[in-house]
């Protein structure tokens, strides 16, 4: 029977068609419509499409951490984090869903086989009990009056949404890397400050202890001096632990657990090059290029297309079917080959279409609400970041002058010490270390705030005019 089946000319035609035409004409048309809607809707999709595709396919090779870790190298490791893997998986899922919609319009070929035993009527011309049959069927949806087209467009915009969310996740992870990187640098400065404070407190305590043995100071003063030393010593140990913890956090943020970097390069950054940002220009750019905003817009368009797809469930479906069969019992009512065009017109769906339309409509308004909420939040965040830079600039001037004063004061103390006017440097080194810590803290806050403001506008994490050319480490802040 199988041999007879495959020599059937119509079956050969069915197999040939299913081989050379794996995709339907409708699928190709809907794909064209999807591409055209991509160019007509959304913002920055033409310029951002290639970047999103490049990011999606880019695989970061894990390298060993360098002896001196730079901010640029740390930021380059963003693709290794599991958060990025999650977002890429979400994007691949969206693409798979679109392929699934495509597949429903492709040729479907299957084999029907039945092993049957029958008791024929006495009047039947064929008295065989073996009524087995075998057939090959080819079926393809020709047209569904917009249902598949709407689903393909919805899937297309879901892919756009996932691509923008992938970029947004990268931006947020880069901010986390910067925060962890600067936390290590600040922990080192805090340790240097507390170490100087402990050394100064110990020198003072040792002097008081010596004078106490000579009977020049009381035991109360000795205990007070020792208490000051023990407090400084405790603060120093706390700072030392903070150094290890901050390095562990950085290693986890880079997806390098256990790989603690001993030396981090200081990023070159001239915060005085930053101009006070104009809120209106920030919002104009953010409305065009903010990644989360674009993702939410794509989600709204996808939800609207899903409503159209649900409404199209009431429309007819036109299908082509062709098949060839072989039978053990040859009966006049059976066909060797069959070809037909079928139309299926829904008359009553039990409320399924109505429920699907209601569900899609609810999701659509939910996505519109999400979009509106983020639009309101976007302006508030832009205002807060721009005003934060305004305040940080004033704090930077204060800390810079304080650091300048502490450095001059330390130079004076050293000069007096070398002239034997003073026996110690006193707390000048401690105050200078504390001033360095405060100045660095403000500097890093400015860098982070400016980076957030750039990412809010869909820009690179560092704008070009914010960089200070310093050949040794300037590459740290170059635009990606």
From TrEMBL:
Q: Does the keyword Transmembrane helix apply?
A: no
The protein's matches in Pfam families, at most eight in alphabetical order, are given as:
OEP (PF02321)
The record's annotation in InterPro entries points to: OMP_efflux, TolC-like
Work out whether the entry's keyword set contains DNA repair. Answer: no
Compartments, as annotated in UniProt: Cell outer membrane
Q: Where is the composition biased (Polar residues)?
A: 39-48
What species does this protein belong to?
A: hydrothermal vent metagenome
Q: What is this protein called?
A: Outer membrane efflux protein
Chain residue ranges for the region called Disordered: 35-56
Q: Which UniProt keywords apply?
A: Cell outer membrane, Membrane, Transmembrane, Transmembrane beta strand, Transport
GO CC terms of this entry = cell outer membrane; efflux pump complex
- Biological classification of the source: unclassified sequences, metagenomes, ecological metagenomes
- Give the molecular function GO annotations: efflux transmembrane transporter activity; porin activity
């Amino acid at each position: 029977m199988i041999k007879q089946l495959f020599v059937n000319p119509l079956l050969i035609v069915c197999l040939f068609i299913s081989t050379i035409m794996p995709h339907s004409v409708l699928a190709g048309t809907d794909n064209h419509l999807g591409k055209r809607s991509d160019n007509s809707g959304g913002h920055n999709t033409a310029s951002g499409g290639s970047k999103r595709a490049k990011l999606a396919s880019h695989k970061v090779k894990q390298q060993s951490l360098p002896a001196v870790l730079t901010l640029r190298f740390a930021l380059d490791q963003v693709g290794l984090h599991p958060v990025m893997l999650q977002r890429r998986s979400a994007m691949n899922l969206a693409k798979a869903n679109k392929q699934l919609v495509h597949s429903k319009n492709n040729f479907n070929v299957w084999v029907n086989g039945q092993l049957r035993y029958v008791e024929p009527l006495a009047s039947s011309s064929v008295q065989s009990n073996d009524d087995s049959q075998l057939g090959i069927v080819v079926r393809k949806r020709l047209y569904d009056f917009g249902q598949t087209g709407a689903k393909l467009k919805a899937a297309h915009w879901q892919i756009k949404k996932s691509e923008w969310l992938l970029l947004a996740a990268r931006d947020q992870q880069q901010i986390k890397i910067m925060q962890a990187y600067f936390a290590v640098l600040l922990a080192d400065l805090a340790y240097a400050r507390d170490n100087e404070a402990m050394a100064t407190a110990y020198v003072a305590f040792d002097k008081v202890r010596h004078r106490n043995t000579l009977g020049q100071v009381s035991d109360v003063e000795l205990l007070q001096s020792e208490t000051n030393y023990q407090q400084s010593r405790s603060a120093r140990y706390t700072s030392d632990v903070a150094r290890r913890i901050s390095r562990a956090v950085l290693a986890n943020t880079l997806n390098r657990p256990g790989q603690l970097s001993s030396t981090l390069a200081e990023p070159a950054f001239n915060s005085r090059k930053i101009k006070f940002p104009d809120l209106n220009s920030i919002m104009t750019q953010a409305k065009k290029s903010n990644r989360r905003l674009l993702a939410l817009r794509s989600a709204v368009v996808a939800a609207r297309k899903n409503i159209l797809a649900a409404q199209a469930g009431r429309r007819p479906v036109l299908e082509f079917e062709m098949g060839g069969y072989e039978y053990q019992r040859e009966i006049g009512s059976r066909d060797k080959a069959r070809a037909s065009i079928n139309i299926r017109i829904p008359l009553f769906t039990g409320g399924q279409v109505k429920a699907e339309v209601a569900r899609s409509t609810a999701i659509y308004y939910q996505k519109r609400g999400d979009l509106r909420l983020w639009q309101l939040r976007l302006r508030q965040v832009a205002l807060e970041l721009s005003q934060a830079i305004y305040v940080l600039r004033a704090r930077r001037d204060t800390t810079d002058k304080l650091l300048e004063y502490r450095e001059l004061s330390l130079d004076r103390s050293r000069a007096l010490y070398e002239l034997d006017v003073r026996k110690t440097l006193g707390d000048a080194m401690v105050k200078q270390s504390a001033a360095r810590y405060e100045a660095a803290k403000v500097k890093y806050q400015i860098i982070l705030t400016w980076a957030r403001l750039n990412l809010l506008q869909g820009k690179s994490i560092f704008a070009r005019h914010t960089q200070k050319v310093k050949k040794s480490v300037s590459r740290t802040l170059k635009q990606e």
